[in-house]
Amino acid sequence: MALLSPPDAPAPYARVKQHLKEGLAAGRWAPGALMPSEAELVAQFGVSRMTVNRALKELQAEGLVDRTQGVGTFAARLHRVSSSLTLRDLHEEITSRGHVHHAVVHVKRAERAAPALAEQLGLAAGAQVFHTLIVHHENGVPLQCEDRYVNPACSPDYLAFDFTRTTPTQVLFETTALWRAQYSIEAARPTHEEARLLQLAPDAPCLVMTRRTFTRDAAITLARLVHPGTHYVLQGEFQP
User: Fold this and answer.
1) Tell me: the pLDDT tens digits for 82-111?
2) Rounded distance, CA 166 to CA 175, Å?
3) Which of 69, 85, 113, 136 could form a disulfide with 144 if both were Cys (CB 3.0 to 4.6 A apart)?
4) What CATH architecture applies to the domain 90-231?
5) What is the pTM of this model?
């Protein structure tokens, strides 16, 4: 006779799912890493393949894993996992509206980090950093001034990419193990240089985001993203 589980015991698929979610949260599998196979989970938990498949399907529906038929299950990257912050590529955002994106690169070089910048990236003062300054346009209109510094240890080939054909965000999504992000948003006036690049009056209101991203062990990038205030509205909805 089969043993019955206690009335409040989680369903078998829920135990498998929770085990994998806890492992992802603890960093047991890095973003993009291959996770245990269905056969391994069947053996570990003593459940059916159907039970394991249900757990993996639910994790996939929640955006926590990627599954490739005949290959396996992979930990999803942070920009697809986060439920509180979506790091969306600007090119994708613009093209999703049916508009044309193009970028003008004004700075693309290696520099020595000043003390304040070095501290933000967890580097020694004077250490080498990569610096790009890019203005993104939507249908020919300047939409964002992106001033970005990158830790070379996290993306050694960063400066080799053509940022008129891809974006720094996309490059860093693909070449680094993005783990967490910090950001702040404020209404502010642009600097003189930002106003010139965005074709704005010096006192034009702007939406300014400052964002740092990290691997588990190091800071990847520090970016200042300046947007003309007339092009953006922050909206939300609340329903009790």
Assistant:
1) 434 444 567 777 787 788 889 999 999 999
2) 13
3) 136
4) 3-Layer(aba) Sandwich (3.40)
5) 0.65
